[in-house]
Amino acid sequence: MWCHRLMRPPPILANGLLVKRWPLLSFQRTAQHQAFDALFDHDQLAEARKWHQSFRMSSLPPGNTSFSRSSGPGGQHVNKTETKATTTWPVAQLLACLPKLLHAGVRQSKYYSKRSDCLTIQAQTQRSRTANTDENLEKLFEELQAMYRNTVPGETSPDKAKKYEALKKSANDTRVKLKKQQASKKSFRKGFAD
Q: Are 90 and 117 in contact (CB under 8 A)?
C-alpha cells in the first residue's frame, strides 16, 4: 500500500500500455481569511469593472476582414460567391481598448494565432458577407465577455468583507494564544532545569 502524501500513485496498465496517474491540479487560495478580490490590485479591478459596464459591441475595433468561398451545403450559390468571412484583430489593437486585467487572456484565447499575433475568427454559416462579418464580431464580443467573467471576480459585499475581517481577527487571536501557551510551556520547562 502506498501513502498519497509521501509517494506518487503507482502507474496503471491500460490495454497493455503504461499510464501514469497524476493528481488533478486546482486553484487554491493562499490566504485563508481573505476575500477573493483582495488578491487583485483594486485600481485594476475598478478599471475592469468600469470598462465592462460601458462595453458594447460597437466599441470593438472593426478588424481586417477578407472573404473567400465557403464550404458545405448551399449548392451553386456557395460555389459562385465568396461569403466566408475571416476577420483578424491584431493583439496590439485589441489591448488598446481592453483593461489591463484582460491583457494576459487575449493571447490565451482559442482564436489566438501565434504566427500573426492576432485573433482570427471565421464565419460561413450565413449566405451574405455582412451577416458573416457581423457573426465574427459577435464571436469576438462573446469571447471577451467570457474572458472578463473568468478573470475578474465579482465584488465582495460589505457583509462578506466584515465576515473575512472577523475570521482574520479570530485566526490571529488563536495564533497568538497558541504562541503564548507554547512560550509558557517552554518557560515552565526552563524553571525545572535550574
A: yes
Q: Give phi and psi for 76, each to the nearest 5.
A: -65, -35
Domains by residue range for the chain, with CATH: 37-155 (3.30.160.20)
For the chain, the first-to-last Cα distance in angstroms comes to: 48
pTM: 0.63
Query: Going by C-beta distance under 8 Å and a sequence separation of 6 or more, which residues neighbour residue 82?
Result: 67, 68, 69, 70, 129
The phi, psi pair for 11, rounded to 5°, reads -70, 155
pLDDT tens for the chain, 194 residues long, are 344 444 455 555 555 555 444 444 444 445 555 555 666 778 888 898 899 999 999 889 989 999 988 776 666 766 678 888 999 999 999 999 999 988 988 999 999 999 999 999 999 888 888 999 999 999 999 999 999 988 887 776 778 778 878 888 888 899 999 999 999 888 888 765 55
What is the arrangement of strands in the sheet containing 118-123, beginning at the earlier edge strand?
Answer: 64-68, 84-90, 118-123, 112-113
